[in-house]
Amino acid sequence: MNTGSELLLGTTLNTHGAWMGMELLGLGLRVQRQTTVPDGEAIITALGEAMERSDAVIITGGLGPTSDDISREAAAEVLGVDLITDEAALRSLEAFFASRGRPMAESNKKQALNPVGADILPNPNGTAPGIYAPPRMSGDRLCALFLLPGPPNELRPMFRAEVLPRLRALAGVSGDYQMQVLRCTGVGESDFHQDLDVQLNAIEGLEIGYCARPAEVDLRLIGKAEAVRKAASIAQAAFPEQCFSACDENLEQVLVRLLSEQGKKLALAESCTGGRIASRVTDVSGASQVFTHGFVTYANEAKVEMLGVPADVIERHGAVSEEVAIAMAEGALKSSGADIAASVTGIAGPTGGTEDKPVGTVWIGIAIAGKSYAVHRCHNRGREVFKQVVSQTVLDFLRRELLANSK
Fold first, then answer.
1. Exposed, middle or buried: residue 380 (CB in 10 Å: 0-12, 13-18, 19+)?
2. Which end of the chain is more exposed for a tag (fewer CB within 10 A), N or C?
3. Which residue ranges in the chain fall short of pLDDT 50?
4. Residue 175: what pLDDT?
5. Does residue 62 contact residue 150 with C-beta atoms inside 8 Å?
């Protein structure tokens, strides 16, 4: 249960559910339901409903000193117990403020209140201690209840130190479950299903799932270590070239890693993607060591002046052509002094297409010492999807080129 009006207003992104789901998966436990409620009285109703249907409920937020922070009050009411001041928690609060040379407001004393019979969970990173009410406190419901602070820098350490060990003991799980995500590009979701489902479904205790995005399919494997290992081996053998990551790296992370490992520099020349490819590369930490130049040559004049593309080549073949794509990649390679360069020129739409070059047409150029070539593609699925798919395709061509040159 995630509390906070800001989560429902959309002013704050709720990341707790996804993060805790991954943490719990390592125990072999699954989140069955997530509920988000505003601050205030709604917490009491939602908590009562959640405890009726659950073995354990984890609440985030609502442990602050203000009047709308009522998670502890809601817990006491639903459990049918009083709130009392926990002296150890109060002393910890006073020490927290004293160590920072700040006076503690009277309202902060509220944070030392604890439902009778519950355990205080220490919070070395903030003022709000957590609370744990063991199953016996909920009567016939036998539901364990955890109250955690909202800020991630306080919640996450407390979750790992205080919540996970208790859940492990309550559930009697060994913790040998795991999840692995294989990421592939250049293959359709239906092809993935067709080639793998029968083999993967034959593996006992394995749960599989697919997530398709523009120009990418992720295969999610969940189960015990041996089942996941076997399934990953089958998938990688079926799609050895298309599977670019077995450790949840995205394509730009893989590319930056390969460039770094090989000691090579990259340059990019973009037209229709408007810098999207360079943006993705520079999202990766360490890109500054391998990425030298990013040319955004949207106009024909820019292609001529910045990349040295001959004006007569553009005039004869058009800006969206094999010849121009190659010239752009070669110009980027020469101007930058990089080891490998890629270019892209195309028609993102929805206007600008012709019968010979419809909307979605794109040429991708690759230039590397002693070799240059261009590849034609057509992706007519809307301007934003076009740019994403083209950027993904360029990154994949670069990845494959680097892998081929490393053999």
1. middle
2. C
3. none
4. 58
5. yes
